[in-house]
């Protein structure tokens, strides 16, 4: 298990099975209609990892706090967008979350850059993602990292009493 990205204040690495409890807590703590289309998680909570959400699909960011303790601060999920052989050159971000206490430290950007590096290492030459139209901070981050809007599904979701667009973004991974 090696680090993919290091920074004086944080590092990004592949997730491992022992991250499951912390990832589940983080996922529940960051749930919001700003980015989630599924209902708010309710107890009893389903496992974070399952046959469709394997540890090897996730990268996690860790931060060393003032006491020297290393804490899980965020994650992203990087997967093949479809099971089709003709689509294996593409990787898709399916989830990116950063703990409230860790925001503003460049962790989301580090996770995104680490995901792009991992996708290149896996032989991908293109990356895509979907983001809700009203999630301006995420859209700005993705645009600043070279993602462009490639399509919009207007009113695709009904969240918190209003219709929300599903925005498809993508970029080349060529150097």
How would you explain this protein's 3D organization?
By secondary structure, the chain is of the alpha+beta class. It has three helices and eight strands; from the N terminus they run E-E-H-E-E-E-H-E-H-E-E. The protein is globular. 24% of the residues are buried. The model has no long low-confidence stretch (mean pLDDT 94).
What structural class do helix, strand and pairing data support? Answer: alpha+beta
Supply the number of helical segments: 3
Tell me the span between the first and last alpha carbons.
25 Å
Strand content: 35-45%
Tally of DSSP β-strands: 8
The percent range for helix content is 10-25%
Q: Rg to the nearest angstrom?
A: 16 Å
Based on Cα principal axes, name the global outline: globular
Instruction: Flag low-confidence runs.
Output: none
Q: What's the rounded overall pLDDT mean?
A: 94
Q: Please give the largest β-sheet.
A: 8 strands, mixed
- Reading the helices and strands in chain order gives EEHEEEHEHEE
Strand order, sheet with most strands: 1-2-3-4-5-6-8-7
């Amino acid at each position: 298990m090696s680090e993919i990205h290091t920074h004086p204040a944080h590092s990004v690495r592949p997730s491992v099975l022992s991250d499951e409890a912390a990832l589940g807590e983080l996922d529940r703590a960051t749930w919001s209609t700003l980015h989630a289309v599924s209902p708010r998680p309710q107890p009893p909570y389903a496992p974070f990892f399952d046959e469709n959400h394997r540890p090897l699909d996730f990268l996690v960011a860790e931060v060393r706090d003032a006491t020297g303790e290393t804490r899980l601060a965020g994650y992203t999920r990087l997967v093949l967008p479809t099971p089709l052989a003709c689509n294996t050159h593409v990787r898709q971000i399916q989830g990116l979350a950063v703990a409230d206490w860790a925001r503003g430290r460049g962790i989301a950007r580090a996770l995104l850059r680490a995901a792009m590096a991992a996708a290149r290492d896996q032989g991908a030459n293109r990356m895509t993602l979907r983001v809700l139209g009203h999630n301006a901070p995420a859209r700005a981050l993705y645009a600043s990292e070279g993602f462009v809007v490639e399509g919009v599904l207007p009113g695709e979701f009904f969240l918190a009493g209003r219709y929300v667009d599903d925005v498809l973004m993508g970029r080349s991974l060529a150097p």
